[in-house]
Amino acid sequence: MLYPVLITDLDNTLYNWDDYFAPSFRAMVHFLSKETGIDEDVIFSDYRYVYREHDSIEFSKSTQELAFLRDYSSSRREKLAKTAAIVFGQTGRVYLHPYEGVLETLSWAVRVGIKLICVTNAPLVIAENRLQRLKMSGYFSGLAGYLTDWKETEFRGRSKKRIYWGLQKEELNSKRVAYEKIAGTLKLSPKSMYIIGDNLEKDVEPAIDLGAIGIWAKYGKECKPKSLETIRKISTLKKGEVNVEKKHAVPKKAIVVDKFKEIKKIIHQPPQITLEGFELD
Q: What tens digit of pLDDT does each residue of 196-242 get?
């Protein structure tokens, strides 16, 4: 029998990234504006430029590169950046929490013998820390993400219970490369792989093309209007590209879920084994 593996996206699949990041970012901008007297719209614009330069909305040293801070001394700039990061983090703790039913579903999956792998285009360090803050890190036996300035061997050593796949940014434009590497490492048949994500083009279609079961987390497109407005103002995408998945056709073979916990009805559970080695019905 093929033992199932659940490969899940992180942002907007396990938790609402938009409603976490947007208010945290606004709080950080408000702090910087209050400290420097610079208009918030100018700060938004500077952040957008930095994010586009690095092609990442979560570039960790973005504040240090803001144009309006260039005339500040390096010590003043570093102090502002450090405090801004603290403000972001403190605000984020209020808004960072899993979607309803996620923790219970992950616990169920581990209990019945389903291996869990997380795949994200976020930097591995950020993804690892976020899984810990979401109190779900212990459920995953593998994590694949963008490898920045960490050496993969050093990162892999952080956990003996988890396999890490460090990927280049271009390899995550479509997650098929990540899926193939995971399948190769774990010697998986695509038929045993259940893959869920909120992005039809990057998460779901590559899964189906590979021969796996692709599941669209439709609920991941839902966020507060103010969050969407904030994300659009600093997006690295060109105008009109934000949330383009709404216009993207759902593949015929895709399974659509409105809640993460619906996975329990989709995945075929592996047989339960007694101590004597007999399968239970």
A: 999 999 999 999 999 999 999 999 999 999 999 999 999 865 444 44
Q: Which helix (H) or strand (E) holds 197?
A: strand 193-197
Report the distance separating Cα 52 and Cα 59, nearest Å: 10
Whether 240 is covered by a domain: the verdict is: no
CB 218 within 8 A of CB 256: yes
Q: Supply 195's token pair.
A: 């893959």
Which neighbouring-strand residues pair with 280? 272
Residue that terminates a domain, selected from 74, 95, 116 = 95
- Which secondary structure element, helix H or strand E, spans residue 146, and what is its range? strand 142-146
Same domain, 130 and 176: yes
Residue 187 belongs to what domain range?
5-16+99-222+245-280
In this structure, are 262 and 123 located in the same domain? Answer: yes
Spatial distance between the Cα atoms of 270 and 146, rounded to a whole number of angstroms: 31
Q: Rounded to an integer, what distance in angstroms lies between the CA atom of residue 210 and that of residue 195?
A: 11
C-alpha 29 chain-centroid distance:
23
Beta-carbon-side half-sphere exposure of residue 74 (alpha carbons within 13 Å): 0
Q: What is the DSSP letter of 135?
A: T
Taking each helix axis from N to C end, the angle separating 17-36 and 40-54, rounded to the nearest 10 degrees, works out to 120
Q: What is the pLDDT of residue 36?
A: 96
pTM of the entire structure? 0.87
Which residue among 49, 67, 95 closes a domain? 95
Q: Please, are residues 207 and 183 in contact by the beta-carbon 8 Å criterion?
A: no
- pLDDT at res. 267: 92
Cα distance between residue 84 and residue 8, in whole Å: 31
